[in-house]
Every structure is written in structure tokens, then in C-alpha cells.
């Protein structure tokens, strides 16, 4: 669905319940990107439209098939697109919107505001720069971190998605966590939905901070010897064909397929070096699947400091998985604790909070 920009108006309806015109800025969308920010933007925009608001997403990615919100495509080519996208957004006329809600790339928007400019920091690029491999990528992350600092000053109101992110932006007071659809991600209706053999589910990239390659290595070396029928299902686009015995590449799944994969798995594992939040943790917990994770910023917050998940250092992931697959009572206890914790991260609650921020000065 492609939208034309609204025209500016002289006066605005002050009624607190009137629909709002919202422009969401996100370089990423799930049409062509695997970044979690894009998936969250898609969910937020969809829910806002369901509530009667008029939403356009401004993105470098093409429209998402079947999306109910509008789409304004900022098409770029060549290098440094993430930086050039911000400059392109600055040149857009946004005066007809009530709210700009940026999920990145708004740091040049001095004096380019609508009635309300909200910025969500989905993590810290400074934190990611500490762990990323390669000088070029580390430099890029530091520059993006500086842009996040500038963006937090430009916006009328800035929020972070987890308390740990405030380490880098202590002047940002509010935490608005990401949210998921608890109707889509929910426990199965019966034990028969689980696979008859042990399955560990992973959602993320094979290489980089998600550590999919390391998870597969430990699975083959430590889990398979103790559970010969076990499988590692990897929802990832870049798993090599020779990933190892028992490792299955599922590729990219649609919403229904992903929800089904969670309900069928015995354990979910995402041993990421860094997550600003970690939406897959919540999706798994809401689906009644026990979670194994490394103690990164997002996992610690989502799991309530390990009360609702099993947190272990990266080099202990394989042993933790092997132990958990053999302990049904421990899995059941973690699944119960995770399902309860997931209720704090409903999409409805997240959108409620953003609506409050949108209307605070409109």
C-alpha cells in the first residue's frame, strides 16, 4: 500500500480521541530486511491502523506485502545508504502529520518537526561496537551511536526499549519495551503439538552477534551425543548446507509458520552477544517454550534477570541445552515462568503507551 504525503492544515482538532496522522521512520522493514527493528515497526504500524489511526511508514525497504498502513519509499543505491537515508528523510515534507515516530535516522531533523516527534532507541550502537568484528563495522557502529545521541536531543521525547540501554543515554528517562501479539504467540493447546523428538529452535543470523554458527557447533558437539535424535531448527537465511548432523535450515518463515515452530519446539535458544531487547525471547516465552540465552542486556531484562529463562555464558550453551532437554520438570518450570513474564510485553500495552506520548502535546 503506497501513500501520498498529507497536506498541511491550518488548525488541528484538539479532541483527545480523534485519529492521528503518524509518520513512522524506519530504514528497515521485513519486506527485505531481517532486522528486528523492522518487524517491530511493522507490528506497531499495523496495530495503530487497527485502532483507527492513519499511518505511513517511511523506509528504504519496499512495501511489505499485504500491509494495511501506507508506505513512502525512499529509494537509494550505492554505499552508505543508512547515513544517506537520514539526509533524504530530512528533505521530506512532513508538515501534514500530527506525529513523527522515528526508529532511526532522524538525527538531522532539527526544526523539521510536526506537533510531536517521538524517538525510540532500540538499543545502543556503542554497545554493539564493543562486540562487533572488524574495524570497518566497528567504526560504522560508533558513528551510528553518535547519531543516536544526536537523535535523542532532536526529538521531543525519546524512549529506550530496555533499562540497560540507559547506560549510554542516562538522560533518557522512559522505557517503553517492544511488544508482541499475544494472540499469535501463545502456548499450544496440547502436548501433541510438540515434536516427538527433542528440538531446539533458533531465530537469527548464522554469522555475527547472534552466534548461530557457534550454537550449531556446540549442538553437534555436546547435544547430539547425549540426545541422538535431537534437531536444531534454524530460522535463518544464511545457514550453510553442511551445518552439521541434526541441523535444519528453515529459512525465512511467515508469521503463522514462525508461531507454529515455537509451539512445536522443546527449547528456544538465542546466544547473542548483544540484544537491545530481544523480541524472539518474548515470542518463545509467550509460546510456552523454555528459553536458553546468554546474559546480554536484552535477555537479562526480558527474562527478569534469569527468573524466566536460563542464562548462561556462550561457552556453556551446549551443556545447558543438553541438560535441559533431559529434564522435563525444569523445562515445564521455565515455560511457566516465561509465559507469565511475556504478559508484560504485549503489543497492546506498548501501543497504549505510544498513544499517550503521541497525544501529550498534539
Automatic annotation (TrEMBL):
Give the coiled coil ranges. none
Pfam families linked to this entry: Glyco_trans_1_4 (PF13692), Glyco_transf_4 (PF13439)
KW Nuclease (keyword) present: no
Q: Where is the Glycosyltransferase subfamily 4-like N-terminal domain?
A: 36-184
InterPro entries, alphabetically? Glyco_trans_4-like_N, Glycosyltransferase_grp1
Report the GO molecular function annotations. glycosyltransferase activity
SUPFAM superfamilies listed in its UniProt record: UDP-Glycosyltransferase/glycogen phosphorylase
Q: Which Gene3D superfamilies match?
A: Glycogen Phosphorylase B
- The answer to whether the entry has keyword Glycosyltransferase is yes
Membrane-spanning segments:
none
Sorted alphabetically, the keyword list is: Glycosyltransferase, Transferase
Q: What is this protein called?
A: D-inositol 3-phosphate glycosyltransferase
Task: Give the classification, highest ranks.
Answer: Bacteria, Bacillati, Actinomycetota, Actinomycetes, Micrococcales
Amino acid at each position: 500500500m503506497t501513500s501520498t504525503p498529507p497536506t498541511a492544515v491550518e488548525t488541528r482538532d484538539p479532541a483527545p480521541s480523534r485519529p492521528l496522522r503518524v509518520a513512522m521512520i524506519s530504514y528497515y522493514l521485513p519486506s527485505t530486511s531481517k532486522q528486528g527493528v523492522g518487524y517491530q515497526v511493522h507490528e506497531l504500524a499495523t496495530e495503530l491502523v487497527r485502532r483507527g489511526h492513519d499511518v505511513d511508514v517511511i523506509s528504504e525497504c519496499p512495501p511489505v506485502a499485504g500491509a494495511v498502513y501506507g508506505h513512502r519509499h525512499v529509494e537509494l543505491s550505492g554505499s552508505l545508504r543508512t547515513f544517506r537515508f537520514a539526509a533524504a528523510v530530512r528533505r521530506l515534507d512532513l508538515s501534514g502529520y500530527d506525529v513523527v515516530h522515528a526508529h532511526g535516522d532522524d538525527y538531522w531533523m532539527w526544526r523539521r518537526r510536526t506537533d510531536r516527534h517521538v524517538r525510540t532507541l532500540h538499543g545502543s550502537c556503542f554497545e554493539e561496537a564493543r562486540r562487533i568484528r572488524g574495524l570497518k563495522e566497528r567504526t560504522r557502529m560508533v558513528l551510528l551511536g553518535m547519531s543516536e545521541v544526536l537523535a535523542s536531543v532532536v526529538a521531543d521525547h525519546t524512549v529506550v526499549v530496555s533499562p540497560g540501554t540507559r547506560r549510554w543515554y542516562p538522560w533518557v528517562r522512559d522505557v517503553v519495551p517492544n511488544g508482541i501479539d499475544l494472540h499469535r504467540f501463545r502456548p499450544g493447546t496440547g502436548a501433541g503439538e510438540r515434536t516427538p523428538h527433542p528440538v531446539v529452535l533458533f531465530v537469527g543470523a548464522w554469522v555475527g552477534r547472534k552466534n548461530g554458527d557457534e550454537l550449531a557447533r556446540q549442538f553437534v558437539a555436546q547435544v547430539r551425543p547425549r540426545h541422538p535424535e535431537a534437531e536444531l531448527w534454524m530460522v535463518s537465511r544464511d545457514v550453510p548446507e553442511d551445518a552439521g548432523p541434526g541441523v535444519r535450515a528453515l529459512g525465512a518463515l511467515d508469521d503463522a509458520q514462525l508461531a507454529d515452530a515455537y509451539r512445536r519446539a522443546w527449547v528456544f535458544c538465542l546466544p547473542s552477544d548483544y540484544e537491545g531487547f530481544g523480541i524472539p525471547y518474548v515470542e518463545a516465552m509467550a509460546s510456552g517454550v523454555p528459553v536458553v540465552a546468554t546474559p546480554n542486556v536484552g535477555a537479562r531484562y526480558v527474562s527478569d534477570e534469569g527468573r524466566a529463562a536460563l542464562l548462561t555464558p556462550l561457552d556453556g550453551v551446549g551443556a545447558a541445552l543438553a541438560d535441559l532437554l533431559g529434564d522435563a520438570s525444569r523445562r515445564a518450570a521455565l515455560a511457566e515462568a516465561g509465559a507469565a513474564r511475556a504478559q508484560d510485553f504485549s503489543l497492546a500495552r506498548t501501543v497504549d503507551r505510544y498513544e499517550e506520548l503521541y497525544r501529550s502535546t498534539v
